[in-house]
Structures are given as C-alpha cells and as structure tokens.
C-alpha cells in the first residue's frame, strides 16, 4: 500500500513540501542546541573567575536569550508541520487508498459516548479524543478515534498537606460499528485475567458491577470462557450475538493485538477498546526523513487493521436483515 500513494504527483508534491519543512526545522533545532551548549559553557567559564565584573556574564546570557528566541520560533513552526502532516498528507493518502474513509485530526469520540459504551465506570476528570476515522465497508458504517481519559484523586496527609494524583482510565483506540443483528440488552466482554500486565488498566475500567441486572454468561466455547468473562442483561440475546463463529473471530482478533481487548454490544452497535501506547497519526521524528518508506506506515497499518475488523467479525453478513 505504501508504494501506491508515492506515485501520484500531487502526493509527491505534499511529501516534498513537508520534507523541506522538516529540514528547516531540523537545522533550526541543531542551531538552537549548539547555541544553548555554547551559552552554558561561556557562562560557566566566566563563573570560575569570581572577581570579574558582572558585565563579563553578558555574552553568555545574550547567547542563552538568543537560544530561547530560536526555540520560541521553532515551537509554532513544528506545530504547523504536525498539522500539515495530518491535514494534508495523511488525509490525501487515506483518501487515495480508501475512497469511503474520512480522516478528521481534530475530531474524536464524544465524552458522553465514551461513557455510554459501558466499558468504563470511572467518569474522567480529564478527557481528550482526536484523530477520528470514519468509513464504511459494504453496508457497515464504522468509526474509531484515539482516546486518552484519566481521573483525579486527592488525599491529605497528617500535616494537612493536600496531594493530587492522576490515574489513567484508558489510553488507546475505541472502535465502533453497526452490528449485524438487532438487540435491546447490553452484553459486555472483558478479559478473564484481570491481574495480568496486559490488562492491568481494566482494574479501574471494569463495568460489570455497575451494569444493572446483568448476569454471568457461561458460553459453549471453553477457550472463550478461559480468555474472557461475559456478562449480559439478556442471556438468550447474548448467545444470539455470541455464536460459535463470532466467538472464534473475537479470539482471533484478540490474538492479533498486543494487549487484551474489551467489547460491548449495546443499542445494536459494537464497541471495542484497544489499549495502545503509540500515537499512530503523528509524524516521524524530525531526525527521520518523511520520504522514507516507513514514514506513514503505522498510520496506514492501524487504519487497515480497523478496516479488517469488519471482515474478521463478519459484520456485513445478514446486515440486510436488520429492521
């Protein structure tokens, strides 16, 4: 896929423009670092001579102030570079590879939907979501976004000093799509081994205790029961959703990811939470050429990975029977 987009003259022009921006930023950053090192060295060297008048420090201080001015210019220029990478390059590449996909870097999953998907019980005190990708495959609409949510706790020690601490609720990607069957209840699937390193973040995310009227669902697939815990407000509906074929597909999807996934089936929609550490839609480091073959690979990879979920979970099958 990475070989296709570079052949278009329009995309080549965008790539070259961003590469030129990157080179300018890299040169400016090197200059700023060199000036900073020189300014610090000059100031320290003068300080060894304690009897020298104060004005001997002026050259070193002047160099450091010049360095600060350089950094103040680099910061907004780098922000523009990041914006152009997303809004111009990634948008164009995704459009050339997926005609039915829309990428909006500044849009994300609304906070109320984050809570409504029932995957998390802790309401976030700090919430951000960006890099929204919306698309369709056949008759199935889907979208996903990067999400970062955390909550705050406060404590007071014996001396009356207050301390504030932030705890991560979730960081990663939340994917949602139309499901191919209608249902009225809520079914939640969470990792069985909550204590493992892979799913440690679920200790504050578990929705089970707050799902009113839910009961444990013991399914017919031993491997699925060993990997996941399933709760639902409707036992019959849960089995209607989680057919043997669907359970196999969820197990296959879970094995493809580095961290355990969590799923909810609610309001005839499917939600999947993928805990991830990487930001998949950011430009490569400034030291790395944007013309390299892997400069945008991770962004394309995550889009294709999410795109493939529709086929892997067979969400298009029988969707014509809905309603």
TrEMBL record:
Organism: Pedobacter cryoconitis
InterPro entries reported for this sequence: DUF3137 (IPR021484)
Lineage top rank: taxon: Bacteria
Keyword Transmembrane helix assigned: yes
Keyword flag Transmembrane helix: yes
Annotated TM spans: 32-49
Name of protein: Galanin
Alphabetical UniProt keywords: Membrane, Transmembrane, Transmembrane helix
């Amino acid at each position: 896929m990475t070989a296709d987009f570079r052949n278009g003259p329009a995309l080549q022009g965008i790539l070259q423009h961003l590469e030129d921006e990157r080179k300018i930023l890299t040169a400016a950053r090197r200059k700023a670092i060199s000036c900073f090192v020189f300014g610090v060295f000059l100031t320290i060297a003068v300080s060894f001579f304690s009897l020298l008048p104060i004005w001997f420090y002026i050259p070193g201080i002047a160099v450091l102030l010049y360095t600060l001015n350089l950094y103040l210019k680099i910061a907004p220029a780098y922000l523009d570079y990041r914006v152009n990478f997303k809004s111009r390059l990634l948008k164009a590449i995704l459009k050339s590879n997926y005609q039915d996909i829309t990428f909006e870097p500044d849009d994300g999953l609304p906070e109320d939907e984050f809570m409504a998907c029932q995957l998390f019980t802790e309401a976030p005190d700090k919430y951000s979501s960006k890099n929204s990708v919306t698309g369709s495959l056949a008759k199935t609409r889907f979208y996903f976004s990067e999400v970062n949510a955390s909550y705050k706790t406060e404590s007071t020690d014996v001396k009356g000093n207050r301390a504030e601490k932030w705890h991560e609720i979730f960081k990663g990607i939340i994917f949602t799509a139309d499901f191919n069957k209608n249902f009225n209840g809520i079914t939640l699937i969470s990792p069985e081994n909550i204590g493992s390193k892979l799913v440690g973040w679920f200790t504050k995310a578990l929705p089970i205790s707050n799902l009113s009227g839910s009961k444990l669902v013991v399914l017919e697939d031993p491997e699925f029961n060993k990997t996941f815990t399933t709760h639902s407000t409707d036992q019959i509906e849960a089995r209607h959703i989680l057919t043997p074929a669907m359970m196999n597909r969820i197990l296959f999807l879970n094995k493809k990811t580095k961290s355990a996934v969590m799923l909810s089936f609610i309001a005839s929609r499917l939600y999947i939470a993928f805990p991830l550490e990487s930001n998949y839609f950011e430009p490569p480091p400034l030291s790395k050429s944007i013309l390299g073959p892997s400069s945008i690979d991770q962004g394309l990879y995550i889009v294709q990975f999410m795109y493939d979920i529709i086929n892997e979970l067979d969400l298009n099958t029988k969707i014509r029977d809905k309603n």
